[in-house]
Amino acid sequence: MVSSTADPHKVPLGHSIPAHRVHGWCSHCPDRSVAEELAAWQIDAQERHAADDADGPLDSSVDWQTCPDCGHAGSLSVVAITVRTTTGPKKAGGWKYCLNCEAVQQEAAHAGP
Questions:
Q1: Percent of the chain with pLDDT over 90
Q2: 2, 21, 105, 112: which could join 96 in a potential S-S bond, CB 3.0 to 4.6 Å?
Q3: Which helix (H) or strand (E) holds 35?
Q4: Is 34 helix (H, G, I), strand (E, B) or coil?
Q5: What's 36-92 look like in SS3?
Q6: Regarding predicted confidence, which is higher, 13 or 4?
Q7: How much is the pLDDT for 1?
Q8: Phi and psi dihedrals of 67, rounded to 5?
């Protein structure tokens, strides 16, 4: 996919501004066909869909607990960071932060599986 920001005033008359903006060309360009443009749009949609499905190798979750420092129920946010690897998910670290007393507790990453 060739990404360009086509200036609507520089795209030839009758050509597709969106196609030029996303692909850098359209089916009205020389040596291009409607089938090529359709395939390019399908590949672009598949790549966008795959990017939405795979947010990356990191996951995070937040749990709310009672703070051990001030005892306020539900004010301690516990954040866990998990890395997706080929052997499965691994906890990479996280932290705890109390919204009530502002206590911060760092969690260390696990060294092994």
A1: 24
A2: 105
A3: helix 34-53
A4: helix
A5: HHHHHHHHHHHHHHHHHHCCCCEEEEEEEECCCCCCCCCCEEEEEEEEEECCEEEEE
A6: 13
A7: 46
A8: -75, 125
